[in-house]
Amino acid sequence: MPSPPRRALLAGAAGNFVEWYEFGVYGCFATVIAERFFTPAAAGPDPAAPLLAAYASFAVAFFFRPAGALLFGRLADRAGRRPALVLVIALMTLATTLIGLLPDRATAGAAAPWLLVLLRAVQGLCAGGEFGGAVALMTEHAPPGRRGRYGAWQSFTVALGLLAGAAAAALTASLLSPAALSGWGWRIPFLLALPLGLTALGLRTALPGPRTRTPSPEPASAPEPAAAPGIGTVRAVVLGVGRIMGWSAAGYTFLVVLPSYLQSTLGASFREALIATTLANLGFAASILPAGRLSDRVGRRPVMLAGALAVALCALPFLHLLRDPDAAAPAKAAALLAAGATVGLLAGPGPAMLAEMFPSSVRCTGLGLAYALANAVFSGCAGLIVTALTAATGDPDVPAYYAGGLCALSALALAGLRGDDHRGPLR
Hints:
The protein is an all-alpha fold. It has helices at 4-28, 30-37, 40-43, 49-63, 65-79, 81-101, 105-108, 111-140, 147-175, 178-185, 187-191, 193-205, 231-255, 258-266, 270-298, 300-323, 329-347, 350-355, 363-378, 382-393, 398-414. It is globular, with a radius of gyration of 21 Å. It starts with a helix and ends in a 13-residue tail after the last helix.
């Protein structure tokens, strides 16, 4: 049987995998969902309107994430990590499965897009509670000097989930005709979330009883009560948002929005866009765990600063290379791998960095809220902003301006990190 730290790591990572598998599937099928649920006739004469509507429903889930972070974060800080994480994965699995069963506009009429938005809102609430509880569980159980490595597994399972989502979409697209894919085949990857979610649920229900604090070597007369968030917590949340907003923007621009951008702006086929996204996600996955381990040795600041500055400096040349018809395919593949790897430099140390900013009594709430707010503003709106600005300006470099600019601002916030935060115990 795995040791308690490894059991906590596995239970926390499993839920993240299921969550981000679904988000990856939705990103890959955004154009199909736009066709099935948001038709041009309903959205107006603008041919880009259905895709914008699909991304708006994508963004809805992110704007419910802060509420989920507060709701489930307070539950985790008061009642323990396990009950909150069990409830989150159960609701997330149910909502994702129902999306796969949802009647489209041709069957349910105007109710179809509203039902989709409702299920996305439920997913947003669950996703908001998932991050704080899972990261707290992983980092609080980490052996000394390994918080970066354990926290990086949260981001690594994000990458695995996105890769699994892209692979499921690619496999479905390769096995079915375009008509079958658009008609019913897109539902299959969503329905696969049911067995995946039930597996994660089993792992979490097997965790030990409620645990809100890491063990202390000193005897304590009574457990510390879960304090209400105060001014210091609010300040830490705002600073946390600044430190990870570049990670949020670059991650969604390069890893989730890329398929639809390549199709709508560069004229790539659905399969070509999926291959490109898979390469970017492979680079992302490959760099996360090494980045987390490196941050345990040299600190969170140098590793995350390197990632933020790399995106800020290289985002524009990256897109220019993708658009160059004379560029060799291996060069484009290498660029996609490198783009994903730079995001991994931010995502590897990021969870541990956030956990180290908050005391145990408000850790789930604080780090979950910082992550949820950053994702609501800078990830959930990425597809909507990039698609709208590209359509309005005709400038195909909009994704580079968006990701690079926010990473430059994030680098300023990351510069204020203390160099020895990774060495001391969690508060």
